[in-house]
Amino acid sequence: MRCPFCGNLETQVKDSRPSEDGAAIRRRRSCSECGGRFTTFERVQLRDLMVVKRSGRRTPFDREKLERSISIALRKRPVDQDRVDRMVSGIVRQLESMGETDIPSDTVGGLVMDALKSLDVVAYVRYASVYRDFRETSDFAKFLGDEGLDNDAPEDPKDIRQGLGEQDISPSDDA
Ligand SMILES: [Zn+2]
Predict the structure, then answer these.
(1) 75, 77, 80, 82: CA torsion to nearest 10
(2) What is the distance in A from the centroid of ligand 1 to the CA of 28?
(3) How many whole angstroms separate alpha carbon 153 and alpha carbon 117?
(4) How far is the CA of 26 from the centre of ligand 1 (A)?
């Protein structure tokens, strides 16, 4: 890293630690030529994040797509947009702080499911039913049972899928 004071290329890292939100690494540097001190931040660039689907296909991470799939799951649910925005930002921060540019779609789906679970259980079930792509009503019933949700959402996954419309919210599809 070139010294911003004298242009010397020899600078040393004195200290290196994560920034407050964990999305960047902050480095204190000093120049071995002029002794000047400066700070650099190293962060993953969102536009470089790639989502790797189960098929191996890579697509650029798209925050708007993620927001759209989440808002479809939350349709007509009594959840403030502010909380949704914070949830999406939280997911994006987690993705950024993983330090990898290639992220499996299952990882993204898992983060969304975890976040929705604490935000709104109905939206969680909707998302899970599409994300997990239950083929059989019995698979879905087993999932609800495992999650202790049998009484809350005795819906057929096909109905939910229809309720969500034709929108693709499954990260495993070639969307
Ligand atoms: Zn210098």
Answers:
(1) -40
(2) 14
(3) 14
(4) 19
pLDDT of residue 157: 56
The domain segmentation of the chain, as residue ranges, is 9-44, 46-147
Question: Helices (H) and strands (E) in the chain — how many of each?
Answer: 6, 6
For residue 38, the CA-to-ligand 1 centroid distance in Å is: 10
Is residue 166 very low, low, confident or very high in pLDDT (cuts 50, 70, 90)? very low
Mean pLDDT across 112-120: 91
d(CA 120, CA 114): 10
- Cα–Cα distance for residue pair 166/175, rounded to 1 Å: 12
Which are the contacts of 169, defined by CB distance < 8 A and separation ≥ 6?
Answer: 68, 69, 72, 73, 127, 130, 131
d(CA 146, CA 50) in angstroms, rounded, equals 32
Q: What is the pLDDT of residue 167?
A: 45
Of 109, 75, 70, nearest in space to 87 by CA: 70
Q: How far does the centroid of ligand 1 lie from the alpha carbon of residue 5, in Å?
A: 5
